[in-house]
TrEMBL record:
The UniProt record lists the keyword Transport: yes
Source organism (scientific name): Parambassis ranga
Biased composition (Low complexity): 184-197
Annotated region described as Disordered, given as residue ranges: 114-151, 183-202
Database matches in CDD domains: PX_SNX9 (cd07285), SH3_SNX9 (cd11898)
Tagged with keyword Methyltransferase: no
GO biological process: cleavage furrow formation; endocytosis; endosomal transport; intracellular protein transport; mitotic cytokinesis; plasma membrane tubulation
Domain SH3: 1-62
Signal sequence bounds: none
Protein name (database record): Sorting nexin
Keywords annotated in UniProt: Cytoplasmic vesicle, Membrane, Protein transport, SH3 domain, Transport
UniProt cross-references to Gene3D superfamilies, sorted A to Z: Arfaptin homology (AH) domain/BAR domain (1.20.1270.60), Phox-like domain (3.30.1520.10), SH3 Domains (2.30.30.40)
Amino acid sequence: MALKAQVIYDFTAEPGNNELTVKEGETITITNQNIGGGWIEAQNSRGEVGLVPEDYIELGKQFPAFQGAATTTPTPSVGNVASSDLAFFDAYAPASTPATNQASNGNDPWSVWNADPSGGSNNNWASNPEGTQTGKTAADPWSSVSQGHPQAYQGPDIYPYPYLIDYTGAEDDEWDDEWDDMKSTGGYAESESGESGAMQRGGAHASMKIKFPGFSKSGPELYLLCKQIAKGKDKLPIYIGEVGPVWSYPEPQLDCVVADPKKGSKMYGLKSYIEYQITPSNTNRTVNHRYKHFDWLYERLLDKFGSAIPIPSLPDKQVTGRFDEEFIKMRMERLQGWMTRMCRHPIVSSSEVFQLFLTYKDEKDWKMGKRKAEKDETVGVMIFTTIEPEAPDLDPTEVEQKCEQFSRFTKAMDDGVKEILTVGNEHWKRCTGPLPKEYQRIGKAFQNLSSVFTSSGYQGESTLTDAMTAAGKTYEEIAQLVAEQPRKDLHFLMETNNEYKGLLGCFPDTIGVHKAAIDKWKEADKLVATSKITPQDKGTMAKRVSTMSYSLQAEMNHFHSNRIYDYNRVMQLYLEEQVKFYETIAAKLRQAHGQFTTM
């Protein structure tokens, strides 16, 4: 029985990666469904065999082969191992469970921010802030737009316009896991905390999951009404500084370098991946990680700290071109930015899971540390049980005012950042498109006129024609400078704002936790009246709401401190490069000007 499948999306094979290029509407024959990791092996009508993502095809019916015909397709081998022998990998493949969008605003206390007549559909960098040229709507905490298939968003080449398209897509080789513990039934070992569900993602379905900023969805009442706080936890102190509540900052501040990306392979060379070297400042010893390990760290940090600390998403995955040199460079740059921001945070950087990521000694140490992190019960709102403000309790009314103030600021800054991204994208496209062509046309026109002057035969013409030709070439050189300039200055301004866009997108959820806690406290009198809680419980709730408020204020003060540093730095760099750019153009124009003489 030959199993046929209909291709529902175009897929372009990566050279040297044992993949098969297929086109939408094409019928292919499945030769091996047991590859795992969201891939199948298939043969096209030309007899070519290779790997295809499962989500790019729709399985059809089995058709009996005619007697006497070649009823079996020769099984390609890798080295000395036949592909059919690789079926044991299927036990290690994640179960294909469709991911669900968990960013619904149905119960979001800040859903008023989503009051957009477009329903969020206009929120793309092509027409509105942070959209893409291809019309992809970016993940936005104030909208819940469904995500289509990643192949639909490939659009034009992203270079030299790296801000015109999101790097989203199914990169299944990131999800198979040689180091992760597996259940006997196959698939990822499930986190016993049961909060994030991150380790239950499956195959290509999983890698297409939209990563909205968020937090573990346990309600604040889990913390507010907790009868007894567990003892022996590492405490997170909050002090009152010059600017108000602040976290305790370690000395010296942790830093790390992400560098030296190398291509590796697995499954006997069937699949490839990129591995990065990370060198932390506290050990100066290099550790190696793939993107999926960064993703695991993100999920753990989000699960543990997301209710109190905004954890921005990682740079997205890529369907095609993921081994392209420019893409690898940009991903490494963005991973460096993400790691730097995590290193700067005193709570995140000193956490056990983050230190594991940076300092594990060997594979055994990594596996044991991962297992311990996935069993951590101090996640979601229970992180507040570890926070100890060294200050008097706040009045809940004051807490509510702080929440409103922070929400207004973060929403206003989010709008401002998106405006810069929109204007920057338009300027980038103009600098690398129409504007250089205008300078080239000016230069060509000067040189054409110089040729006309030369044809006059007049004896005293050479000085003028040489100067005209030189002026034309000067404008051609300026055209080249204009086209190259965005990479030297605008790139860094855009990257900083893109990073802050992701960070700001986390605040609605973080602030929403505090808002929900205040709402629960407001119900305390009714709960006391109905004997559901005691007056002592009400007092405990007020004290814990105060603790949550101190953590929010400490986090906002941390955010403001970083914001002031980051924008001072990036604006200085941008303006310094702009000054150099215009000084270079001015020098070229002065040189051209000096070649003309007055009679």
